[in-house]
Amino acid sequence: MNDSVTYASAGVDIHAGDRAVELMKSATAKTHGDTVLGGVGGFAGLVDVSELKDYRRPLLASSTDGVGTKLAIAQGLDIHDTIGRDLVAMVVDDIVVSGAKPLAMTDYIACGKVVPEKIADIVRGVAEGCQLAQTPLVGGETAEHPGVMAEDDYDVAGAAVGVVEADQMLSADRVQAGDVVIGMDASGLHSNGYSLVRAVVASAGKKFEDHIDDFGRTLGEELLEPTRIYSADMLALLAELGCEKLHALSHITGGGLAANVARVIPTDLSVRIDRSSWAPAPVFHQVQAWGRVPLLDLEATLNMGLGMVAVVSADAADDALACLQRLGVGSRVVGEVMAASDLPGTSAESDSLTQGAKGVDGGAVLITGDYASQ
């Protein structure tokens, strides 16, 4: 007589999943305010949105994302409590570029085998990110995929929804010639370009445990630095300047600085950005040097030290910089908006011209000059 087949013998441990939920409960609960109804374990998260009745024309903004192959670094080092912050940043900071306030977030974890402590670490990071974003984590799912994923493998994804008043929405339509472009400091590589970074690290024979003097820590610690979460600070900046002065925001993710800025510039306008206005962190220079990566390829892959960009009216630039300083966000003017016909042509081999990106028929962005030294 054949042995019976059970869910457990097929590789799915329901009890481990329940244990993971118990371990993550307290971290998730810390993100809940008065608007969240119910707790962990419901079929769906519930959020009281009674405030929307006071909107004249509320628009819902939604976003979903993951963290890409940065997961391979976390798995290689067996450190899982920071990757959740990356996930939150990738989602809520895409929402806030429209001027929308994130209302709620959910997460999804697929893994080869549920290890409760590991899952709890991941969700703890998500919860910490949600606290920084002032956004409740209202639900999630952990799925065990034996035979499809290796036991130690996992992937994460997140989704969020936000709201913005229709006539307060930020967009390319508000951008005008004469506006200035403000770049805000990234915390490091953030969560894009890790396929390039991992290939460079491998080709250079580096190990995650190697101490890198320029970083002041190990390579692994540098590569796992969590993505900066800008959403709460951007909402504070918008509240201070208003959409009459703060015209557009751009989250600098895949595709780099030029491609993402181009998405919020109308086709009849263009932007000139001067590299000499900021100094990228040492990690960007090391990736370029270790892999002999061409500058333009590097810039089309990594954020080069700027994780968020604001386009503001020229007369509001000083107020914007002062506000960001109070919020603890390092920033500076890095460029200007001009008529497309006034944009100079490329004059040096290092000049980079980008016209639109990611399916958006946007304006041109020219990056010139040489980066400042730290």
TrEMBL record:
Pathway the protein takes part in: Purine metabolism; IMP biosynthesis via de novo pathway; 5-amino-1-(5-phospho-D-ribosyl)imidazole from N(2)-formyl-N(1)-(5-phospho-D-ribosyl)glycinamide: step 2/2
Molecular function terms, GO-annotated: ATP binding; phosphoribosylamine-glycine ligase activity; phosphoribosylformylglycinamidine cyclo-ligase activity
Start and end residues of each PurM-like C-terminal domain: 176-340
Catalytic activity: 2-formamido-N(1)-(5-O-phospho-beta-D-ribosyl)acetamidine + ATP = 5-amino-1-(5-phospho-beta-D-ribosyl)imidazole + ADP + phosphate + H(+)
GO process terms (BP): 'de novo' IMP biosynthetic process; adenine biosynthetic process
GO cellular component terms, A-Z: cytosol
Gene3D superfamilies found in the cross-reference section: PurM-like C-terminal domain, PurM-like, N-terminal domain
Broad class of where this protein is predominantly found: cytoplasm
Annotated localization: Cytoplasm
Keywords attached to this entry: ATP-binding, Cytoplasm, Ligase, Nucleotide-binding, Purine biosynthesis
Domain named PurM-like N-terminal: residues: 60-164
Family of this protein: Belongs to the AIR synthase family.
PANTHER family: TRIFUNCTIONAL PURINE BIOSYNTHETIC PROTEIN ADENOSINE-3, TRIFUNCTIONAL PURINE BIOSYNTHETIC PROTEIN ADENOSINE-3-RELATED
Protein name: Phosphoribosylformylglycinamidine cyclo-ligase
Gene this chain is encoded by: purM
